[in-house]
């Protein structure tokens, strides 16, 4: 066995942290880094567009709830700025491995020194995962990657969140029990692991209406009778305006900026990063907090919420008009099998969100930062890499990022369906089949066939577009 290099140490750290693949752009994934990946069986995922590559890795990190890595030249980092901003806003623990780092928007920039490569790699991984998670740039020039390094058993995961204290849990339970019309607001942390199940149990046991933040959409399914809407919507405002206590569950500071609820209403919070100014607060994993609250709230009086009142708020939201793209999204949701994931580009994200019924915490993936063209197809690739059994439908615009992600999907044999609803030019790169989906009837027929394909398929849905070939 040859000597251990910095590249070996970096790839080993990524692998132990949960990154089974490295998304790559250009020649930075060469030499020692590529050799280390081959030795440790870490598969490269080439995506020849810096923004798309970063978006693929960011979505993979979110869905796996573990670090994901992208390797790209330092000169391409500025081009990937919107994707890094998305990773930061979506709280994705993304590791960007590069050979030179210009000024970029990231949670941190860590330079790997050969003498202490294991330490700096572990530091970058822990920083990316620490609350709130976010992108970290790991700088290692090619010469440094090939330098010898000492392999050390470093910890690559941050310590678990503290257990909530009994006193804090008692105070939180008293605040909830003393409210007549509490409303739960489910935030980002409610999409993690066991949290959706405990959120549902909490809401049904009290019972209370639930508002979800955009990043927690689906943590309580949209069709659930206690889900009243997304924070910022008219339905959510109606529910929050009638409440006397807002129970913020797993809501982080960015989601609570403003704040986005009526002034003067008391707030209680639970989660890894409890909100400042809350009347009662329990710090810890939100699923653990909700589990511990259950016996404390078992005998409390039922809140003064009428089922018909909650249903009236829900129906007012459902009655809102939906655009053509929203109707296409609703058709796709109806046709696709259980577990399907929808992704949308910035130009159609709001329309897709209005038409899509989210029933799982991660079955609707939307760009969390502006200007990220090509997000939908990149997110579809990231989703397929992490959850290969889950069908994916991407509502996309044409463009370089979309084409690069579709090419990557074709090389890897990833079955994704891209419904092209906007943009100019060809809807698909060479070799990717195209089918007509210019109206809702055509989409139903084409989508059923496209979902059975073994690689990417493009469905042409732009109004007035030329007809595509049959899948």
Give your account of this protein's structure.
The chain is of the alpha/beta class and 471 residues long. It has 3 domains: 6-145, Rossmann fold, CATH 3.40.50; 166-318, TPP-binding domain (Rossmann fold), CATH 3.40.50.1220; 324-460, 3-Layer(aba) Sandwich (Rossmann fold), CATH 3.40.50. It contains 16 helices and 18 strands. The strands form 3 sheets. A 6-stranded parallel sheet has the order 2-1-3-4-6-5, sandwiched between helices. Strands 9-8-7-10-11-12 form a 6-stranded parallel sheet, with helices on both faces. Helix 5 (117-129) links the parallel strand 5 and strand 6. Helix 1 crosses helix 2 and helix 12 (324-335) runs parallel beside helix 16. The longest helix is centred in the first third of the chain and has 15 residues, at 50-64. The radius of gyration is 23 Å and the shape is flat.
C-alpha geometry: flat
Q: Architecture of the largest domain in CATH?
A: 3-Layer(aba) Sandwich
Low-confidence blocks of residues: none
* Count of strand segments: 18
Strand content: 15-25%
Number of domains: 3
> How many angstroms does the end-to-end distance come to?
49 Å
SS-derived structural category: alpha/beta
Number of helices: 16
Q: Report mean pLDDT, rounded to a whole number.
A: 92
CATH overall fold name of the largest domain: Rossmann fold
Radius of gyration from CA coordinates: 23 Å
* Biggest sheet strand line-up: 2-1-3-4-6-5
CATH superfamily of the largest domain: TPP-binding domain
CATH class of the largest domain: Alpha Beta
Helical fraction equals 25-40%
* Biggest beta sheet attributes: 6 strands, parallel
